[in-house]
Structure formats: C-alpha cells, structure tokens
Structure to design on (292 residues):
C-alpha cells in the first residue's frame, strides 16, 4: 500500500495528469457550475432585501481545489469492449492485493524457484500460500503429473524441463474457483538463468489462454507484464503489454474464457520506468476496436 501511495504522489504521475489544459477545463467547468448554482439560489433567497451573493474569492478557491482533485492521477484505467462483453483493465498495484480474480504467474520451463530472489512474482506467491518451498514443489509436481517433460541438468542439478506454454494450475485457498496459473514462458541456460527469447513468450501466451479455456473458469484474470523481469527480454514494457493484449483478444475470438483481463504494473516498476497510463489506455481502446 505504501508503494502505491508513492506512485500516486510521484512527480511523473502528476505531470501526466495535471496539465494546464486539463486543469483549466475542469476549473472553468466547476466555476461555472458553482456560480450558476449561487446565482440560482440568490434569486430565491435574500438578506436585508438584497440577493445572497457568495464570496467570489471563496468560489475561485473552491474551484481550484475541486479542479485539482478532478485532475489527480488515475492509477486504474478501464476499457470496455461491449461487442465482445470484455473489459480490459490496467492498474498500478501489488497484484496480490487484488482478490477478485485468478493470478497468472510467469515461470521458467523447469518451474524452479530456489535460485530466484524474493522480489520475483513466483517467489512472492510461494511465500504467501505455501508453508515451505518443498510444499510448493509438491503442489507443482501434482499439477504437472500428466504433462510431458524431459530430464536436464541446470546449475548442477538434475531437473525436469517442460515445453514452453506448459501450465501448472494451482487452486487458491478461500473463495471457490480461484486459481494460480503458473505458465512456463522462458527456457533456462545451464547456469539457471533465463534465456531471453521473445518467441518463447509468443508461444506461451496462446497455450496459456487455451489451457484456461479448457480447464479454468471465467473469473477475472490478473496478469503482470510477462517477460519484463527475470526473463530478461530487451523489449520495452509497452511492447510486452501490447503482446499480451493482442494474444488475449485473438484467443477471445474463438472462446470467451473471462470477462475481464487485469494487467498489473507493480508500483516500483511504475516509479522506475515512468509509465504513461494515458498512452496505455489509448492503446487498449484502439486494440479493442481495431483488433491491433
């Protein structure tokens, strides 16, 4: 929550939202409404035979305050696609604070997590819902029991390697029907580091949507910007968002597997990479209308 507040009060968030043009538009509109209302009430009410008149400086100040509030950064944006009955959403938040959907968790093709730092999404998920890494490994092994795999040696350990696009579907405690979909979207080299290949992510996404369509349910899907962290892809995050959205919309042409896709930008990433949510919202709108 603290990081989200930092994102809200960050300089670049206000720079994108509080422009002179936007502020003046809101201020003039608010001033006109307040002044019209006071003129209207002055017509019916009077003091000592004179119409009640407001303090003009108070009206000006009130208009400034309300206009500044209306110009505040909006860290959650919605784009409705009525022709498909789908809603696209982008939000700046900790994805694990969102409780109304199922999470999509990026993973490597070995589903290894013991060599990754605690900031990784898969490690955050593991530590929130499992008593130990060993319990997490058991749950993944059970979910992948029927999935094809091969043996390999990674970082000196013998591991099972699954094809790109393999999904480990884990039920979540609490509300019935919520899942975590762990998707294999990156190969590991012999040192246990992700091999940056956009083709792997491009292949993993359609497989993910197919899996959810066949084995999941229609709960909202909460997805981080896949490929932006330890997968080491050189593509910028806007390109990765576009890839996720295009893949989702293409899959939705054949089967509706959810009514809402929520793309989550971690507050730390928002502060570091100075996202412009106006641009992302505009892209989501165009992608939905034009099928970009």
């Amino acid at each position: 929550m603290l990081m989200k507040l930092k994102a809200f009060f960050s300089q670049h968030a206000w720079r994108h939202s509080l422009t002179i043009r936007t502020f003046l538009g809101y201020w003039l509109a608010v001033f006109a409404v307040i002044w019209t209302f006071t003129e209207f009430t002055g017509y019916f009410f009077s003091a000592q035979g004179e119409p009640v008149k407001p303090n003009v400086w108070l009206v000006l100040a009130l208009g400034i305050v309300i206009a500044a509030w209306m110009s505040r950064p909006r860290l959650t944006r919605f784009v409705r696609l009525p022709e498909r009955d789908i809603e696209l959403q982008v939000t700046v938040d900790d994805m694990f604070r969102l409780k109304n959907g199922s999470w999509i968790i990026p993973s490597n093709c070995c589903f290894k997590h013991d060599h990754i730092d605690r900031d990784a999404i898969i490690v955050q998920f593991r530590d929130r819902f499992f008593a130990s890494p060993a319990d997490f490994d058991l749950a993944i092994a059970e979910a992948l029991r029927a999935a094809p795999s091969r043996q390999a040696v990674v970082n000196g350990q013998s591991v099972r390697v699954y094809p790109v696009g393999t999904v480990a579907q884990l039920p979540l405690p609490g509300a019935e029907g919520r899942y975590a979909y762990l998707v294999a979207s990156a190969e590991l080299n012999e040192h246990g580091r992700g091999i940056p290949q956009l083709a792997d992510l491009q292949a993993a996404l359609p497989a993910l949507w197919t899996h959810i369509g066949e084995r999941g349910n229609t709960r909202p899907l909460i997805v981080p910007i896949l490929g932006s962290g330890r997968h080491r892809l050189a593509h910028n995050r806007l390109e990765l968002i576009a890839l996720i959205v295009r893949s989702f919309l293409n899959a939705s042409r054949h089967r509706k597997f959810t009514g809402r896709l929520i793309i989550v930008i971690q507050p730390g990433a928002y502060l570091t990479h100075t996202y412009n949510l106006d641009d992302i919202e505009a892209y989501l709108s165009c992608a939905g209308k034009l099928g970009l």
Observations:
- The mean pLDDT is 84.
